[in-house]
Predict the structure.
Amino acid sequence: MMRRLLFVLLTAFVAVGCTVKYSLSGASIPPDAKTFSVAYFPNNAAMVTPTLSSTLTDALVDKFSRSTRLTQVPEGGDFAFEGEIVGYTSATASVSSNDYALQNRLTITVRVRFTNLIDEKASFNNRTFSAYADYDSTKLLTEVEGELITQIVDQLVNDIFQASASNW
């Protein structure tokens, strides 16, 4: 009983002495930042799927609209994003003992230029982000492509968001 009381008191003292700023999105946006802009991300990969550019661009806009207080502007935002899709590949991810493919992996790579007009040291130029999703080798890429692109773009957008809007 005494240990429990001591633990509760110690926890209370530590909690009172510490302050932490939490954000539901994980963002740490400077108070002076008011706007963001996202330029269209063209698909410059060797293998191209028609909707990937708009899917990625729209997802990045949606993420910043939903997760920050920033207002979207057509160009020149306090947080400005430009870039291109530079990789779109499907390759074998795992092989059985009989040398048959079990899983294939779709990988998307994006090169991003981020300009932070409020804190230029936080900007980055030509940073590469890559994400992937695996799929069963018995399926054609065209059968699972839509679902995989959604998963991969979500991961890419989260990585870009964390790199540009958080101090982690």
